[in-house]
Amino acid sequence: MTPHASGTGHLLVDWATFPPVGHVIEGLQIAGAYAAAYPHLPVSLALHRRAPVELADCCDFLAAHYTVDYDVAGTSLPDDVFAAVPPDWRWTYRCYMRDDPANQAAFPQLARLSAAAAAYFGTPRDAPGLSHLPEHPLRLKLPEDARRAAHDVLGAVSAGTPVLAVLTSGGGNREAYPSTGSWLLMLRELRAAWPQAVIVLVGKTAGAHGRRSSAMPRAEVAALMAAVGAVDGYDLPLLVQLALVQRAALLLSPHSGFGFAALAVGTPWLTLSGGPHFEYFHNGVPFHSLVPDTSRFPAFGGATHVVAADSDGSGPREASMTRERVTGALPELLEAAASLVAGRLTYEECLAAYFPRLQGALGGDVSALSSWDNVHLRFVRG
User: Fold this and answer.
1) What's the CA gap between 43 and 330, in Å, rounded?
2) Alpha helices for the chain (secondary structure H)
């Protein structure tokens, strides 16, 4: 937390709603887009206390950042919940997620937090009179010590040797991500396609750095690394893991907020898309989402679609993460990885290819689509 300072004449982006990495990246993107639109306007940011606030230290466009401590699953707020944030701002931009009815139904605490912010800051919540710079890309400036640590992990990498970063799961339930056997299939295909590649696995186990753990147990990750000769990037500090990803030609992962952070260090994101949510944050970096055939493997719509048992005997699994789906996606995965590694695709080409496919996966329903800064409106019809 930065020291108190008067915010008079300044803008506060109040993004102290949820702690996960992806949510923080979204707040940083908004703050950066305002700072880019108004170069002489000091822009500050408020985040949840348990959020990875070190990401804010990588953004030199921020005048200051603050933390707010509350339990999103709680039943009451501290009277002084915003006490660590100066109250006197000319403008505030407050996280719209707090006022979403679906979010408030799931987390009643959000309505209390929204009311507390309105009372404490007093200014309208949507920064009237200001407009951010649309589609302004966020780029994190990682510290030198994190980059040095990543270099020590990877060692000397010869010119022309790709580094492939892999995140096997996010912080959801284990059934929301492919089984260890399915990951072994994917990693072996990558190793066969790039025998000399440096493959590095990232993520964290329970209790590491006091934050949500990846769903795949450490022992299973270690087995995958041994099977394909991968480098161990697990349980390192977040900024070191991002420095590893920044050295990579791509990040392969399921849908995860960590993928947003990969884009924010300029690394292409190859996503095994599926589960409740599709990819909506792209950030000016080439990407490819392996969109499932939702007629066979239901996904999206904010709902889970768990089948009783994966065909590999590993237990319940999200339909779009099953062995059958993964096996069918392997040709596209390899083709997309080759394009991203070779740098053959521009960002605009990636957008133009993605949104029509996603619209089809959503049954053609344009109203079900969304994207950061409504990028998708350039590419869909209906």
Assistant:
1) 44
2) 21-37, 101-106, 109-121, 144-154, 180-193, 218-228, 238-246, 257-264, 323-342, 347-361
Question: What whole-number distance in Å separates Cα of residue 337 and Cα of residue 187?
Answer: 12
CA nearest neighbour of 5 among 94, 66, 51: 66
**Contact (Cβ atoms closer than 8 angstroms) between residue 161 and residue 252:** no
Q: Which distant-in-sequence residues (6+ apart) come within 8 Å of 274 by Cβ?
A: 254, 255, 292, 297, 299, 300, 318, 319, 320, 321, 325
DSSP secondary structure string for all residues of 296-317: TS---TT---EES--TTSS--E
- Compute the half-sphere exposure of residue 362: CA atoms within 13 Å on the CB side of its CA: 24
Sign of the torsion formed by the C-alpha atoms of 53, 98, 253 and 246: negative
| Range 347-351 contact pairs with CB under 8 angstroms and sequence separation of 24 or more | 347/282, 347/284, 347/285, 347/286, 347/287, 349/286, 350/282, 350/286, 350/287, 350/288, 351/282, 351/375, 351/376, 351/378, 351/379
106-164 pLDDT per residue, tens: 999 999 999 999 999 999 888 999 999 999 999 999 999 999 999 999 998 988 899 99
Asked if 94 and 124 count as a contact pair (C-beta separation under 8 A), the reply is no
Nearest to 93 by CA among 57, 59, 53, 129: 129
pTM for this predicted structure: 0.95
